[in-house]
Design brief:
Length: about 120
């Protein structure tokens, strides 16, 4: 836990980063926040593993991204909400692909764009 810099909490029965959030350039439903905190915790574990020299399979990051979509979608009561969950999943997946599905690199949103 010292390597994480925080003590994980439990939300909906899953460990999460208590200060994690949905970092998105567009507003997402508040109901997505618990899923984002769980996803952030998973990414933090990948970063710790990378710092410790552990091999990170591409499937682990893909699975974390898919879990995010499933958790977000479960909170939805409308097609619009499900669309937002799918759109968020596509955006997260594109970023994961851009980063080679390895340890997540912390960047400010859109800093990596060429303009």
């Amino acid at each position: 836990m010292a390597q994480l810099g925080y003590r994980p909490t439990s939300g909906a029965g899953l460990p999460e980063n208590p200060t994690g959030s949905c970092s998105s350039p567009v507003a997402l439903p508040d109901s997505f926040e618990p899923a984002c905190r769980v996803h952030d915790f998973g990414y933090d574990l990948l970063r710790v593993a990378h710092r410790n020299g552990e091999f990170i399979s591409q499937e682990i990051r893909r699975d974390l991204d898919s879990q995010l979509e499933r958790q977000m979608s479960r909170t939805c009561q409308s097609e619009g909400c499900r669309f937002m969950a799918s759109a968020a999943h596509v955006a997260v997946g594109l970023n994961s692909a851009r980063q080679g599905y390895g340890a997540p690199v912390e960047e400010k949103w859109l800093d990596w764009l060429p303009w």
